[in-house]
Amino acid sequence: MKRQLKATSKHILRSPFQSLAAILVLSLTFFLSSAFITILAGSYSVARYFSTRPQVIAFLKDSADETKINELKNSIQKLSGISAVVFTSKDEALAKYRQQNENDPLLLEMVTSDILPASLEIRSTDPEVLPQVAEILKTQDIVEEVSFHKDIVDNLNKWSRAIKLSGIGLVSSLIISSLCMVFIVIGMKIANRKAEIEIIRLLGGSGWQVVSSFVYEGIIYGIIGGIIGWLLSWLTLLYATPAILDFFGSIPVLPAPTWFLLALLGGQIITGIIIGFFASALAAKRFLR
Amino acid sequence: MIRFASVTKTFPNGKTALKQISFEIADGEMVGIIGPSGSGKTTILRLLINEIIPTEGEISVDDFQVHKLNRKKLPQLRRTIGSVFQDYKILTDRTVAENVGLILEILDLPDKEIAEKVTNALEMVGLSKTEDLFPAQLSGGELQRVAIARAMAMSPKILFADEPTGNLDSVTAKQISKILKEINGRGTTVIIATHDKGVLDFIKPRILQLEAGELIL
């Protein structure tokens, strides 16, 4: 194994530009793959953030009495897919408002608890039930107005799906390109070393002994490509962090957890090994026939 | 023991290179296969190392049934037979030592053992000071000796030399013949395929004479 790896490194150094081409294509594939995975993870974080916010808010009339509010709260609570129904009184609403605007005395002065309505905040585990909940609330006498953030969550989910689909398409085509590139490079190397391979076979080298250095070469391309691609995406993420934080404000999309970055690196190295192995094994099978 | 039993080889182009050839070679024997170009000498070597398979007949080398050899056993067969090819088959981008040690490296022997075997093989053929030279720096006779050293590096039971003196002058041819005789003297079965009767007159092996693919002696 040690000697075969030494032979592989010799082969790589003997035709460095072919090796460089294969590594660059793999690095690009892995860079774009990890960028796509990071964006996808970020979009899920944003969607999760919004899905944990109150999805439907019913603002109650000042005339609504406690009994009717509790009846409505209980009836909504009983619906399937509802995770929480939280009542916020006028005083609590004012307290929240003051907390949110504590740095703006002008806004605090202008608002009293009379202005802010009491409300029921409904959270759901199933976005499908939200339109029904909103419709029920609108028909209630004690409800003044219904605020329903369906569009935000729906749009986020649509965007996540679109990113996922286009990302899968992009990454798949890049993986196929990488497979082809490694296949061609290894094939060229096999063609260049036909005489050596023939001699090794005639002298008693086994099939694996002939093929192994090419397979190791493909695997090494995959590993190096995976590491470079990950490194590039990590540096890009670091560079873009201030802009991302500025754009998303209080939505916690960053910092990316360490386990996520390590899993991404591990996943890319394993994928690199698989791409390198299959491409070089296919090339060896095709060109050594 | 090598055994050819009624072996015929017809190539896809319809040319029959060997017709119903039968012979046996005992362990430690020295055999010369003589015949003009195209008489089938190289075909015997190619059949022996299973590079091609016979159209008819049976070939055995010790326990190997060569004519129906499993692909997995092919490397073992080829390590039993040291082959010296007419065109040397020496890699031009490797030093003499690397060429001789090529198969030993493939077999993943320890570096120390490889160096030892390479030195011994080169000493055997009188090329002990050429280890670091490249093939382009060697003469035809020296290249042939490198090919013999490479074949002998694995200590095979059988050495098959195909036209070992084909491209050499008479003095160098005699040196090569002497080396082959010495190798046989150490107990290795040696088969020499040649069109040069002079070489066989010097070595005096048992003669198998081929003529248009048929064994006439």
Brief summary of the model shown:
The complex is a heterodimer of chains A (289) and B (217). Chain A is α+β, with helices and mostly antiparallel strands.
Question: What this model shows, in words?
Answer:
With 289 residues, chain A is an alpha+beta fold. Chain A is built from ten helices and four strands, in the order H-H-E-H-E-H-H-E-H-E-H-H-H-H. Chain A has helices at residues 2-14, 16-51, 66-77, 90-100, 105-110, 130-138, 150-192, 194-203, 207-248, 258-287, and strands at residues 56-60, 82-88, 119-124, 143-148. In chain A, strands 2-3-1-4 form a four-stranded antiparallel sheet. With 217 residues, chain B is an alpha/beta fold. Chain B has eight helices and ten strands. Chain B has a six-stranded mixed sheet with strand order 6-7-8-3-9-10, sandwiched between helices. In chain B, strands 2-1-4-5 form a four-stranded antiparallel sheet, with helices on one face. In chain B, strand 4 (56-61) and strand 5 form a beta hairpin. The relative contact order of chain B is 0.20. Chain A binds chain B through residues 1, 3-4, 7, 195-196, 198-207, 209, and chain B through 49, 51, 71-72, 74-79, 83, 85, 89, 91, 102-103, 105-108, 150-151, 154.
